[in-house]
Amino acid sequence: MISPLAIILRERLLACPGEVLVQMGDHLTSDDVVARPAAGGSLVAMDLAREMDIDPLRVDRHLLVQAGDQVTPGALVAQRRHWGPFYRQVRAELLGDVVGIHDGSLFLRQVGEPGLLRAFVPGEVVKVHPGRGASIRTTGAYMRCIWGCGGEGWGRLSMMVDDPGAPLTWNQVGRRQRGQVLVGGHLENPRTLSRAELFGVRGIIAGSIDPGLMRQCKQLSIPVLVTEGMGDAPMANPIHEMLALHHKRWAVLSGNCSRGQAELIIPLPGKADNLDVTNPNSLKEGCLVRLTSPSLCGMVAAIESLPTERQPTGLGYLTHGAIVRLSDQSSLFVPLSNLELLR
Q1: Does the global pTM surpass 0.70?
Q2: Residue 266 bridge partners (DSSP)
C-alpha cells in the first residue's frame, strides 16, 4: 500500500513493564527515548554447566564473579582445571551486571542502550500507556513493502538512481552516504551491502533484490526494504516518483517483515484525512493499484469493477478480486491478495 499523505498512528510499547519518560502532547524525534525497562536492559543467561562440562550443582565453586559485580565483554567469569595446565574458561560477551546463578546458569542484566525504547516515528504523543510506552501520531507519506529485514532505522532519503530499474552499485556507496537512506532500483552486488554497513548508511530501499543476497541482508545491522520482490524487476514508477519527490527529507523505515511491518514513513507537515494507515479504506472503482503476483509484479493498473461474486483464476479456483485495466488498455481479473492500493 502507498499513501502520499496520511495520518499514521504507531504504538511504542516495552516487552515488559518499565518507566515511561514522555507525556501527552510531547513532540518527539525518532531518537527520543519513550520508555525504559524498570530493571535496565534485558536478562541474559550463560549456561556455565554446559560450557565447562560439569554438573550444575558444582558450578558455584568455579565462579570468579558474584551478584552485584559488573562484567565487560571478554571478562573471565568462570574457569575450572580441565587437564594438566589446561583450563576450561568462560568469558562474558556483553557489558552487564551479575544478577545471580541458578541451575548452572549465570544471569546478567545487560547494561546500555539496547533496553531503551525510542520513538522511531517522529510526532506527537497522543496516548500514554502507563508502565509500557506511548502512542505516537504523525502526518506523512507511507509505503508498505513486499519484503524487508534488519529492524528499524532513520535518516535522510537519498535517490541514488534516476532510472527505476537501475542497480545501486558498490561505487555509489561511500563516506558521503553516512547517515542516509539510499534508494536504488535493484540490488545485485554483495559489495554494495558490505560498503553500506561499513560507511554507516542508515537503510536501503530497492525495487528488487537478487535472491542470493537475502542471507547477507539478514546479517546487516541496517534495514533493507524491497518494494517489488525477488529478481530484477524495476521499482514501480509511482513509488519511484514518490521517493524522488521527497529526496533529502527525513525518513524512517522498519524491515520487520515477520510482523507485517516492512514499511517506510516520510513525516510531512500538513493535514490529511482522518486515516489510520494500518486500516486502509476498501478498494473502489477508479483506484490505482499495484499488482504483486509474480508474473505481473510491479505493474500499475486501474480498477474497472469489483465483482461481488467470486471469480475463477488462471489456476481454476474461485476467489474475490477486481477487474483491472493495464497500461496497454487490456483488462484482466486479479485476486485481492495480489493487489496493493496506490493512494
Answers
A1: no
A2: 141
| Superfamily designation of domain 2-10+139-267 | Phosphohistidine domain (3.50.30.10)
Residues 120, 254 contacting (CB under 8 angstroms): yes
> Angle at Cα 311 formed by Cα 305 and Cα 313, nearest 5°?
110
Polymer length of the chain: 343
All residues at 6 or more sequence positions from 50 whose CB lies less than 8 Å from its CB, including other chains: 104
Cβ atoms of 209 and 274 within 8 Å: the answer is no
pLDDT in tens, 73-87: 888 999 987 776 677
Taking only the tens place, the pLDDT of each residue in 36-77 is 887 656 778 888 988 888 888 889 999 999 988 888 888 899
Residue in this structure with the C-alpha cell 517522529, named with its chain if needed: 122
In the chain, what are the domain boundaries? 2-10+139-267, 43-111, 288-342
| Euclidean distance between CA atoms 202 and 334, whole angstroms | 36
> Domain 288-342, what architecture?
Roll (2.30)
216 membership: H or E segment, kind and range: helix 214-218
- Quote the DSSP letter at residue 219: T
Distance CA 203, CA 181 (A): 5
The set of residues, in sequence order, having a beta carbon less than 8 Å from that of 87 and lying 6+ positions away, is 79, 80, 81
Cα dihedral sign, 324-325-326-330 = positive
CA proximity to 320, closest of 304, 332, 337: 337
Q: What CATH number is given for 43-111 in this structure?
A: 2.40.50
Alpha helices in the chain (DSSP H): 48-52, 190-198, 214-218, 237-245
Amino acid at 227: T
DSSP code per residue over 134-193: EEEEEEEEEEE-SEEES-EEEEEEEE--SSTT-B--GGG-SGGGTTEEEEEEEE--HHHH
Place of cell 499488482: 291
